[in-house]
Amino acid sequence: MMKRHVFKFARSRMGFADFNCFLVDFETGSCSTSRNSDSKGLLSHQMNASAPRMCSTSCAKVPEDLPKDNPVSDMLLDSFGRLHTYLRISLTERCNLRCQYCMPAEGVDLTPSPKILSQNEIVRLANLFVSSGVDKIRLTGGEPTIRKDIEDICLHLSNLNGLKTLAITTNGITLARKLPKLKECGLTSVNISLDTLVPAKFEFMTRRKGHQKVMESINAAIDLGYNPVKVNCVVMRGFNDDEICDFVELTRDKPINIRFIEFMPFDGNVWNVKKLVPYSEMLDRVVKRFPDLKRLQDHPTDTAKNFRVDEHAGAVSFITSMTEHFCAGCNRLRLLADGNFKVCLFGPSEPRQY
Question: Distance from the CA of 99 to the CA of which of 19, 61, 141, 255 falls in 20 to 30 A?
Fold first, then answer.
């Protein structure tokens, strides 16, 4: 039987009997609101009206123009008409870096290990989502590569019928030595975080050494045939905004997709609007140095605005989380390491109940 902490977002507002019914409905693909139609059992009545409602992903009706043979369950369709076919799974809350924009120097309180999702729970939940229409899973953290059973998790997930993409977002510290095995286990896409090309800056920002290891991981991914290798760079004024064009230069001869991310506020990162470098300013700097920058066609669910410099092997993207939101096309769901569930990164955190 599944541990009780799984899908606490449902249990925190429903009786345990209703929670079991919710899981049964999700496993069978049915959707019934009758048992919750009276009061606080219905999740959507308790969510902030300005944010996507969690219940809507399981109880919305399929639009009339949706093909009848569409494999996506109406349980993954929300009231805004978005099909949530992309699941991000956090494998751990732990990380081997202490990036200043991510967490305080002393770290954060962690969920006790016994209350973190087990491998079997992760695979079972992923299977429920994939059987309902999710076709892309991304493994995240914390830092996912520090989880000892990550290879086994990848192997099980990659074998799920209907899954097209199994990706990972990593800081790259331990990736180089693990990536060959991860690829054998079915990992199809790699995102590596790197905010500076200067080793001293890297150590200052992350409070750890390891710049060379990250560069080795990027090159290892290229050598193993990942194309593109996505490199995530959080741009902060006064720290690395002077390196924007240096990052773009990396795309000249290698299949690297540099993804510039606007600095975003998170708990404990002492966010300051003065550190924010908006997309328009970043783009202007790139165009001045690379006038042949061309806009590419984005997929409707892309969070990034994509570009390519003529004759460059790679691409350049901008993730405009702060200045030009992309909520209308967002198709992401998030399963946290402790079993909590979020539809939106900026949505309210679900209370932990044990």
Answer: 255
Tell me which residue of 216, 217, 199 sits closest to 208, measured CA to CA: 199
Q: Which helix H or strand E contains 315, and what residues bound it? A: strand 315-319
Tens-place pLDDT, residues 161-198: 999 999 999 999 999 999 999 999 999 999 999 999 99
Report DSSP state, residue 77: B
- Cα angle 330, 333, 336 (rounded to 5 degrees) comes to 140
Integer Cα distance of 58 and 125 in angstroms: 15
CA trace torsion 240, 246, 249, 255 (10° rounding): -30
- Which one-letter DSSP state was computed for residue 350? P
For residue 302, the one-letter residue type is: D
The CA dihedral of 166, 193, 277, 342, to the nearest 10 degrees, is 40
Q: How far apart are CA 75 and CA 83, in angstroms?
A: 9
